[in-house]
């Protein structure tokens, strides 16, 4: 179902608290693992049976990420290494 996840990246940087998913998203964008048209599932959990989830669609290659692939439309959902979130301008 998933082509990638952030496990290997997370093991290399350790737990960063609430910013884990944002740092992972940044890593995936900068490493070229995500491209326009890709869908990303972000999940997190915390104490007290707290959990959050969201699905993002990558709409454009961020201007700050020179290494992201140009096209990913039509590929399956693939979690990858960690990520960075950049709101659409």
Briefly say what this structure is.
It is built from 2 helices and 2 strands; from the N terminus they run ααββ. With 89 residues, the chain is of the alpha+beta class.
Describe the structure.
The protein has 89 residues and is of the alpha+beta class. It has one domain. Helix content is 20%, strand content 18%. The protein contains two helices and two strands; from the N terminus they run ααββ. It has a two-stranded antiparallel sheet with strand order 1-2. Strand 1 and strand 2 form a beta hairpin. The termini are far apart. About 15% of the residues have low confidence.
SSE-based structural type: alpha+beta
* Tally of contiguous helical segments: 2
Mean pLDDT: 71
| Spatial ordering of strands, largest sheet | 1-2
Report the biggest beta sheet as strand number plus sense, adding barrel if it closes: 2 strands, antiparallel
| Share of helical residues | 10-25%
Per the principal axes of the C-alpha atoms, what is the gross shape?
A: globular
Strand content: 15-25%
Radius of gyration: 13 Å
Alpha carbon gap, first and last residue: 31 Å
Give the domain tally: 1
Q: Let me know the number of strands.
A: 2
Order of helices and strands: HHEE
Poorly predicted runs: 67-79
């Amino acid at each position: 179902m998933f082509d990638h996840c952030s496990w290997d990246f997370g093991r290399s940087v350790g737990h960063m608290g609430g910013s884990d998913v944002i740092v992972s998203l940044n890593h995936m964008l900068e490493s070229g693992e995500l491209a326009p048209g890709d869908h990303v599932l972000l999940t997190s959990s915390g104490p007290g049976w707290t959990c959050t989830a969201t699905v993002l669609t990558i709409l454009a290659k961020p201007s700050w990420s020179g290494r992201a692939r140009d096209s990913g439309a039509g590929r399956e959902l693939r979690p990858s290494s960690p990520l960075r979130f950049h709101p659409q301008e």
